[in-house]
């Protein structure tokens, strides 16, 4: 099914990679947005005097793909009518604190063995990716920020690697210019970062949470699920961040039985490199098996045992590892919710391909709702809300 794509921002042609594949002409914008147009149709439009930029930007039929994951990609603009609230794969998430999560893109360049959202090329569950136009994201962010008032942290994360977003500098600059925002932070696996990008972000960004799961490079690549993972590059990125005005937090996932011996080495590296000047230097997470996440064989460790290990390491290294909301200045905040409850039956307009196989994106009451259904986009159905979490909804119909 061709996806509705709306107008794309197209670069001058000399910035676009272009090639033929089978009966299609393929264009790649910013290394991530792949546009596929049937060669015949492309030639017809050229013959009618259209420019290549015009054809890429708005003509149908064409298919958009995430060049990194290979999945179909939906370009979410204001004109698309797709709300940025209600879904966890893209847009904005308000969990009722002073933190607003910003999700500009889905999809990942890694393939971690423990990935909670089963991301990367090896996914068995993710069917579609989304990318949000920066102006739309900023406009909607501003509305939530005004409602919440001063003291907001914009935290850029996602179901995937947020730095694959080609408009990251524009986004970070944009949120930082909003008067209510005082902290801008982001998560990353570090692979898309480099010195130039860090320098561009430095005046606006407060903190980067960088995942490093092992100091042994072979094990690190094994855990990342791809030989493309370059630990040396990521460690160098850590050094550059720590030397900049941006605070560095190293965020390993402890997968018992896999990287038990690496945790101490990661702590040593974090201390040596100068992580945590403002915030804690480490945010150690325990591997959890999620319903739609990637499962890895790991030794069972209870939460009390996990925290006991953290407390022992705190004493050993004289470092804070058991983190609290107050370490990040997180406090309760105002929020507005669509207010649907589990069991409600609502009328939902199905508009786009769903994030997971067997799902479709629907719209109702200013929220994008994931709908488990056999119906295709283009129809309106009655569906029952089966899950509600922080103003994000799953329906079935
Ligand atoms: S980097 Fe993060 S999102 Fe990407 S595969 Fe690994 S855990 Fe998943």
Characterization of the model:
The chain has 397 residues and is of the alpha/beta class. It is 24% helix and 25% strand. It is built from nine helices and 19 strands. Strands 6-7-9-10-11-12 form a six-stranded mixed β-sheet, covered by helices on one side. Strands 15-16-17-19-18 form a five-stranded mixed β-barrel. α3 (134-148) runs parallel beside α4 (168-176). It is globular. Bound molecules: iron/sulfur cluster.
Task: Walk me through the topology.
Blueprint lengths: L16 E5 L2 E6 L3 E6 H9 L4 H7 L4 E4 L5 E5 L14 E4 L4 E5 L24 E5 L1 H15 L3 E5 L11 H9 L4 E8 L6 H7 L5 E4 L6 H8 L6 H13 L3 E4 L2 E2 L7 H12 L11 E2 L16 H15 L27 E9 L5 E6 L2 E6 L7 E10 L2 E5 L1
Parallel strand pairs: 5-8, 7-9, 9-10, 10-11, 11-12, 13-14, 17-19
Antiparallel strand pairs: 1-2, 2-3, 3-4, 6-7, 15-16, 15-18, 16-17, 18-19
Iron/sulfur cluster binds next to loops.
List the defining traits of the structure above.
single chain, 397 residues, alpha/beta, TIM Barrel, OB fold (Dihydrolipoamide Acetyltransferase, E2P), 3 domains, five-stranded mixed beta barrel, 19 strands, binds iron/sulfur cluster
Whole-Å distance between the termini? 21 Å
Helix fraction?
10-25%
**Approximate shape:** globular
CATH class of the largest domain: Alpha Beta
Strand content: 25-35%
CATH fold type of the largest domain: TIM Barrel
Helix and strand composition category: alpha/beta
Strands side by side in the biggest sheet: 6-7-9-10-11-12
Q: Write down the overall mean pLDDT.
A: 94
Uncertain residue segments = none
